[in-house]
Design goal:
It is built from 17 helices and 13 strands. It has helices spanning 2-10, 12-19, 28-35, 41-48, 66-75, 78-83, 99-105, 111-123, 134-147, 171-181, 184-202, 235-242, 268-276, 306-309, 336-353, 367-372, 384-392; strands spanning 21-23, 54-59, 86-93, 156-161, 208-213, 247-252, 255-256, 262-263, 280-284, 312-316, 324-326, 377-379, 395-397. β7 (255-256) and β8 (262-263) form a beta hairpin.
């Protein structure tokens, strides 16, 4: 009898509330599709490695930390450890290795040393400064995973970005970096391919998870020609070209920030998941109504659909559960604040010396802005209430 009462108390209100939901006609194809899906986001990503050597994940806002809980859950799965074992990231400079992997794989560091090393890597993560918590959170999470993994199965991580200065902080060396950054997609792809080919030649049998942001995760069907008239290729496009049939790319549910925050498809997708009550799901775009929608992840007008550009989609937590986290304790101490300001000035000075136009912008770093990153802080999602209203317009009360 107690079990029956429990069911009545907790299940019946659910059916009562959903019975009162009125769904717009445009939403029904999506909700009907979602009702048939049973694969979690994690299980979907892991399943892609059965038929692919490289899986590219398009992350959302850098500061959004819950996505990294999912990424670490995927990486910590026994299947990933045994069959994949390698992570490439856009966030983080290429020259952090080999020290970074030594940090990730050595179990003997004290807590004090772990904190010191984390701070060191965060300060070198990106020129001139990286104030988001995600990199520190991620590498410390990988350390925890590796604690319980045998030595020959330790997770490896290879940041592949070009935002670092080789040698001393001189105008010439900063100028050289800017020229690399101007073609960073091709160089990031080269960094991934070179390391991946080294892995293959070693006979390790490892595969790779690649975490990229925004257009860097688009496949080789996407075409973007900026004002320069030269086609802009993404990092993932180079990977698709190099390894045909062996690369998959996946978009995670996301939002954009500009003058105001917006969600994909004017909130229609988020509304469909809200109606179905599923906060953790993954599926192929092709064969779904989601895949046929116009590709508004790229905010300029285009004729692509989502299934043209991405292999699949994962939904992990609705936007009201996303958390934007910045800063790191003591980041701006030990003369690092002054160095950041110096590096930004060098960047701007170097831009003035580079002949011709490069598609990078000048930098302004103020002491006030930088000092904010000296502690961890939670940042609200701008106009979140408006976003929720945008989502809820697809759903209403009624019979």
């Amino acid at each position: 009898m107690k079990v029956l009462i429990f069911i009545l108390l907790f299940v019946c209100p659910f059916f009562y509330s959903t019975a009162q939901v009125r769904v717009r006609t445009e939403l029904k194809a999506y909700t009907e599709f979602l009702k048939k899906q049973q694969t979690s986001a994690k299980a979907y990503i892991l399943s892609l490695f059965k038929d692919h050597d490289i899986v590219v994940l398009c992350e959302r806002h850098y500061k959004e930390i819950t996505q990294y809980d999912l990424f670490l859950d995927i990486i910590g799965d026994p299947y990933f450890i045994e069959n994949v074992g390698v992570v490439f990231t856009e966030v983080g400079a290429k020259n952090l290795n080999p020290q970074l992997n030594y940090f990730l794989q050595d179990n003997l560091f004290s807590d004090i040393e772990v904190n010191r090393q984390t701070l060191n890597f965060l300060r070198k993560c990106k020129y001139p400064h990286w104030g988001n918590y995600n990199f520190a959170y991620f590498i410390r999470g990988l350390r925890e995973i590796n604690k319980d993994v045998s030595w020959n199965s330790k997770i490896e991580m290879y940041p592949c970005d070009e935002f670092y200065v080789s040698g001393d902080l001189t105008l010439k060396n900063v100028s050289d970096m800017i020229m690399r950054v101007a073609i960073r997609d091709s160089l990031m792809a080269d960094n991934i391919i070179d390391q991946y080919e080294t892995m293959k030649q070693s006979g390790s049998g490892k595969k790779a998870l690649v975490i990229m942001n925004y257009r860097h995760a688009y496949n080789n069907k996407f075409t973007y020609i900026p004002a320069s008239g030269e086609k802009l290729k993404s990092t993932t496009e180079f990977l698709f070209d190099r390894y045909p049939g062996r690369v998959a790319n996946v978009l995670i549910n996301t939002f954009f920030t500009g003058k105001e925050s917006v969600v994909l498809q004017d909130g229609k997708w988020d509304a469909a998941f809200k109606v179905c009550g599923n906060e953790n799901l993954g599926f192929h775009f092709r064969g779904s109504p989601f895949g046929k929608d116009n590709f508004d992840h790229w905010t300029d007008k285009n004729d692509f659909t989502y299934q043209d550009i991405y292999t699949g989609f994962i939904f992990y937590l609705p936007i009201e559960k996303h958390r934007l986290v910045g800063g790191f304790p003591h980041l701006m101490e030990d003369a690092y604040l002054e160095k950041c300001i110096q590096k930004a000035q060098l960047w701007n000075d170097a831009l003035q010396r580079i002949p011709g136009k490069v598609f990078v912008e000048s930098m302004v770093l103020t002491e006030e802005e930088l000092m904010r990153d000296n502690v961890m802080y939670m940042e609200p999602i701008e106009n979140l209430d408006d976003i929720i209203s945008e989502i809820d317009k697809w759903i209403g009360a009624g019979n």
